Amino acid sequence: MFLTQMPGTNDEMHIGFQDRKLPVVRPRATNGIVGQSAALKTVLAEVDLVAATDSTVLILGETGTGKELIARALHDQSPRRGLPFQRVNCAAIPRDLLESDLFGHEKGAFTGAIAQKIGRFELAAGGTIFLDEIGEMPLDLQPKLLRVLQEREFERLGSPRMLHMGARVIAATNRDLATMVEERKFREDLFYRLNVFPIHVPALRDRRDDIPLLVSHLIQHFAGRMNKIIDSVLPETMQALMNYSWPGNVRELQNVIERGVVLLRGNTFSVDESRLKRESPSLPLPVGPFAATLAEREREMIEAALSESKGRVSGPSGAAAKLGIPRQTLDSKIASLQIRKSQFRNQPLVTSASFR
Questions:
Q1: SS3 label, residue 267
Q2: Distance CA 9, CA 115 (A)
Q3: Average of pLDDT values for 33-38?
Q4: Statement: residue 14 has pLDDT above 60
Q5: Is the pLDDT at 303 greater than 90, yes or no?
Q6: Is the model more confident about 2 or about 40?
């Protein structure tokens, strides 16, 4: 084995091997985001486009795809980069506390309010407030958020004084908000206020080209924390990681790599393949005309299912159920193929034979 550092760079190590082990390299990261796939480049181009504006952004994607990293990239590339970044997880805070956490309260506003509290909108000042898991926000609290977005003002609980909201709002969700609107689980007017500039973050299975770079990045990260030296990856390990479907996306990959580094005794990284929950078929990814043909067939099947379900994705009569795949998977496919669900909502029904 030999290792050389190319002149003129501090962050790339070019490693060669006399055996067949795969080298661990140092991939470049943009705002902590690692990858060079076409799907990821599309997302980063959208970030570049909208970062300099004040427009509200809605980040969509499955759990574990890195939506917070995209939100932070939007903040860091904006004129607000030196101002606060406030993150609120709408699913993690009880409803009774979420209103106070967002808007603040005055002393004595309710039982237990023993002192004044400054809310996140106020703390964000002229920076960015990131509303993660916005689909979990209670219905009765949504009108207050709508007012903040429309009027750019709010008041603390128990105070008549109106405060100006100068922060930019970025929201994220793994839910299908359009379907939630139809089911009256999310306000339509709030959805349109949030959905000014949607960014769809692809699932890891839809950007498999990035898996080797992510594996190298995560191995180096965890090896550094644990004072270990890891310079290669077993080819069969990388093949298993490439073939796996990753329902938990990058977060699941991170957990698998961390566990592997903990258990590793030598310098070559490997994982127990049996610990992966389920593996995708170990066929090579299609290239050339076969890839285009498969993509077209996939598009036809998805559009036929959406046509029969009139654009509905979830539920027993939704397109995901008709295709026999998880809702999150179909959402990701729809985003990557840039299919507009709205075009199917008023179309006449088609027969299920068209996609079975």
A1: coil
A2: 53
A3: 92
A4: no
A5: no
A6: 40
Residue showing tokens 């993150």: 87
Q: How far apart are CA 42 and CA 1, in angstroms?
A: 37
Say which residue, 87 or 322, is predicted with more confidence: 87
Convert the pLDDT of each residue in 212-224 to its tens digit: 999 999 999 999 9
How many of the other CB atoms lie within 10 Å of CB of 305?
Answer: 26
Q: What are phi and psi of 123, to 5 degrees?
A: -65, -30
CA distance 285 to 130: 36
| Residue-by-residue DSSP string for 146-190 | HHHHHHSEE--BT----EE--SEEEEEESS-HHHHHHTTSS-HHH
Gyration radius from the chain CA atoms:
23
How far is it, in rounded angstroms, from Cα 226 to Cα 208?
A: 27
CA distance 262 to 255: 11
- Residue of 191, 136, 177, 182 lying closest to 309 (CA atoms): 182
Q: What is the mean pLDDT of residues 157-169?
A: 87
Contact 132, 88 (CB under 8 A): yes
Location of structure tokens 């990058």: 250
Indicate the pairing of strand 85-89 with strand 128-132.
Answer: parallel
Q: What is the mean pLDDT of the chain?
A: 82
203 within 8 A of 246, measured Cβ to Cβ: yes
Cα 122 to Cα 215: distance, rounded to the nearest angstrom? 39
Q: Report d(CA 249, CA 242) in Å as an integer.
A: 12
Which of the residue ranges 111-120, 263-272, 298-307, 344-353 would you say has the lowest mean pLDDT?
Answer: 344-353
- The whole-angstrom separation of Cα 182 and Cα 184 is 5
Average the pLDDT over each of 25-29, 105-109, 278-282, 338-342 and give the range with the smallest value. Answer: 278-282
CA distances from 108 to 62, 105, 116, 216 (A): 40, 8, 8, 53
What would the mean pLDDT of 6-32 be, rounded to a whole number? 51
* Rounded CA separation 341/59 (Å): 17
Q: How far apart are CA 4 and CA 135, in angstroms?
A: 49
